[in-house]
Amino acid sequence: MVNEKFYALGTNRLYIRELAEYGMARAAQIGRENVFDFSIGNPSVPAPAAVNEAIVDIVSMLPAAAVHSYTPAGGGADARRAVAADLNERFDCGARPENLFFTCGAAPAVATALAALGVAEGECVIVAPFFPEYTVYAEAAGMKSVIVPPVTSDFQLHASAVEPWLTPRTQAVLINSPNNPSGVVYSAERIRALGELLERKGKEYGHPIYLVADEPYRELVYDGLSVPFVPLLVRNSIVCYSYSKSLSLPGERLGYLYIPDAMEDSESVYAAVAGAARAAGHVCAPSLMQHMIARCASVRPDLEVYDRNRRLLYEALCSYGYECVPPQGAFYLLIRSPRGSAREFSDRAKARDVLIVPCDDFGCPGYLRLGTCVSTDTVKRALPIFRELIEEK
Ligand code: PLP
Fold first, then answer.
1. Minimum-distance ligand 1 atom for the alpha carbon of 107
2. Whose CA is closest to atom 8 on ligand 1?
3. 244-271: average pLDDT
4. Can you tell me which atom of ligand 1 is nearest the CA of 106?
5. Is residue 8 over pLDDT 90?
6. What share of the chain has pLDDT > 70, as a percent?
7. Residues 79 and 214: beta-carbon distance below 8 Å
8. Burial of 213 (0-12, 13-18, 19+ CB in 10 A)
9. Candidate from 42, 131, 256 with most ligand 1 atoms within 8 A of CB, to mutate
10. Residue 153 confidence (pLDDT)
11. 106 alpha carbon – ligand 1 mean position (Å)
């Protein structure tokens, strides 16, 4: 006998995983270069040289026991100090090392934040489009997932679209910007307006509604845009961050939660985060990566390839007649299915070895996501196929 809920989770896989696995099997058959795999969000640029150099240096210079030993559950002092200093330098936000809790990436950061906030009968409002695993984390936290449909006119954050979904049971509102899959960056005005709404509703309901901001793509923005730092705009906010995308380290598993002093019940929220992580069997985030970030907290990604791919795809696909959401950040381009459902269009593309993700699981039916985290050669060689796909009857 096994846990039925977990059995269902372990067997009902997301379509995106199936597509990525199909891509690998197909590459083994016809050659990697002949599969145009835009499906998965794996960074295609290597980790910055400074990161690799720091890792080599740490492994060769520090005593092994220091490199590989357990750290405190929330993270080692040097890593926390370095990240707090970097946040303060960039956002002047008064971060202290004690506000940070290191995790194995953004996924456990979000899951832990929701677990910490999950009370009986609680609800987690999730703004679409959204990373599909959010509903899994909310439900594991004992909360009901309440989905705010996307505003497809601009894919921005609209407080007026969120308001009807708030109830006295709302514990948290979960947003992601730069957004996966739309590539849209939520503006400071929009985030502030949502914060004002949550503050007002929190007073009405007699308890705070926390804004959980999932920001693994914070550093991936283009055209000189900057990503607003949510805690400067919304008092009761928790930031979930990851180095998976910004430093191209998705397999190394490092991220953190930032729980600002200014938020209501900050100390209790931090303690509940520590408890939720403990209950999930968290011991500490990878020690080697913590040593690395203690040295590399201010290292930023090289965005040249993502930016080039983004422009190439956006301009070409628009010129062929695709309806595309202008991508401002992350490494995705969202397009509307030109014909039939998103799954039907994805299947037609797949028949030509172009793998693109239907976004039904992201709360965004009728749209498909293309990862721009591929080689520019892949983009260039796939363009004629995209043209044929929209032109064929
Ligand atoms: N949140 C979003 C919006 C993502 O796109 C991803 C990964 O693609 C994650 C969280 C998980 O990131 P991590 O690898 O840091 O756990």
1. 16
2. 41
3. 97
4. 15
5. yes
6. 100
7. no
8. buried
9. 131
10. 97
11. 5
Residue with structure tokens 């600002």?
260
Residues with CB under 6 A from ligand 1: 41, 105-107, 131, 176, 180, 214, 216, 242, 244, 250, 255
Please say whether the beta carbons of 171 and 124 come within 8 A.
Answer: yes
Confidence at residue 62, expressed as pLDDT on a 0 to 100 scale: 75
Ligand 1: atom nearest CA of 108 is 16
What's the token pair of residue 72? Answer: 């405190």
- The Cα-based distances of 308 to 44, 205, 375 in angstroms read 13, 47, 10
Query: Residues 45, 306: contact at Cβ < 8 Å?
Result: yes
pLDDT digits (tens, 9 = 90+) for 275-292: 999 999 999 999 999 999
d(CA 134, CA 136): 5
Q: Has residue 393 got a pLDDT over 80?
A: no
Does the pLDDT at position 63 exceed 90?
no
At residue 293's C-alpha, the angle toward residues 287 and 296, to 5°, is 150
For residue 54, give Cα distances in angstroms to 50, 58, 249, 368: 6, 6, 14, 38
Average pLDDT over residues 93-118: 98
- 189 has pLDDT over 80: yes
106-117 vs 133-140: helix axis angle to the nearest 10? Answer: 40
Residues 6+ apart with CB under 8 A from 293: 79, 82, 83, 243, 254
Instruction: Decide if pLDDT at 224 tops 90.
Output: yes
Beta-bridge partners for 212: 174, 238
Ligand 1 mean position to 216 CA, how many Å? 6
Which atom of ligand 1 is nearest to 105's Cα? 15
Protein residue with least CA distance to atom 7, ligand 1 = 41
Residue 365 confidence (pLDDT): 98
